[in-house]
Amino acid sequence: MKIKPATTKREKSELDRLLWNVLWKPLNLPRHIRDSFKIDSPQIELIAVDGKVIIGVLVANWLSENEIEIRHIAVRPDYQENSIGTLLVEELFKMVGEKAPLRIQIHARNTSIGFFSKLGFKPSGNRLDHKDFIRQGIWVQQMSRDLAKNKLN
Fold first, then answer.
1. Across the 153 residues of the chain, what is the mean pLDDT of every consecutive 10-residue run?
2. What is the pLDDT of residue 101?
3. 3-state secondary structure at position 64
4. Contact 16/67 with Cβ under 8 angstroms?
């Protein structure tokens, strides 16, 4: 298994399909709901690949010179509980570590707060309710982690 940036049209298409299948399809949300979440800033798209199969993805955006937001992270159900999500986040830390000090934030679903807490993220804002998710029993918590130069873990 290797983690790398999504660079080809096929990889970006598979990344989008995996996000849809894992994050939004189970909630009966519209197929292209991801478009409503996009922000206009430089983006990092990482994929975890097993052979030729994309098994995990992470999308993050630069919010400023010293701040990144993880926008989406998903792992195929048959690969979950194998640290793929952790490896994706750690690869992001490595990629951006040269620019530290840096703050990485996320709006974590209530179902993933424990995952991000294990990676050193701490609540940094209020609980938020999004109209498309709250009716599914999902709310989000703003969380963040500060990276210091040469100290990523």
1. 96 96 90 86 96 96 94 96 96 86 91 95 87 83 84 50
2. 74
3. strand
4. no
The amino acid at residue 17 is R
Domain ranges of the chain: 2-147
Helix (H) or strand (E) holding 19: helix 9-19
Torsion-angle region of 133 (φ positive above 0: left; ψ -120 to 50: alpha; else: beta): alpha
CATH superfamily of 2-147: Gcn5-related N-acetyltransferase (GNAT) (3.40.630.30)
d(CA 125, CA 142): 5
- Between CA 140 and CA 93 the distance in angstroms is 22
Contact predicate 89/5, CB 8 Å: no
DSSP 136: T
Q: What is the pLDDT of residue 30?
A: 83
Rg (CA), the chain: 15
